[in-house]
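input
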Amino acid sequence: MYKKITYSLIILLSFFIISNVEAKEKTNLYIFYGETCPYCEEEITYLKKIEKKYKNIKFNYIEVWEHKDNEKLIEQVKEEYNIKTKGVPITIIDKYYFTGYTEYITPILNRTLDKCNKNGCNNYIEDIKDNKEVNIESKKLVYNEEDKLEIDRNNILFDNGAYLFWIVIGLSVLLIIVSFVVIKFKK
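output
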């Protein structure tokens, strides 16, 4: 008797849980890049490294220098997002964008990706591609000193262990110089 009740409850709960699960549309991240652009290559390498972490985000890599058919799209995107730069890379997710690439942008990019991966974000570029009217209050992502410090703290040359290493190297060089000076004056 208890088994039947338990199975019935499990089946009933399963239907309740399944009916409350929303199918989440993937958020799109777009990077517009040039084939021989070194900053683009650096950013793409980084994005490919973290891509698997973000299951709800589709990473779209759009080359604009060699593929002229993408030129119209990037011009439409720049107009809608009010992007004034002529260079690449241009990276867009939801209403956020940044131009160029530096490792200092990665903390704020990661926070934005985390937010969109968890909660979902708008896919304005899909609307732009479909020639739908969009109203984007775009926001340029820029790194601040806190983001820069986070990167520098994670940089191996500035790691606590590295400081100790450089102190030991410096003291060793100093000891060698003092030894040569002392030996030279003893003669």
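quick obs: Helices lie at 2-20, 38-50, 71-81, 106-119, 124-129, 145-154, 160-186.
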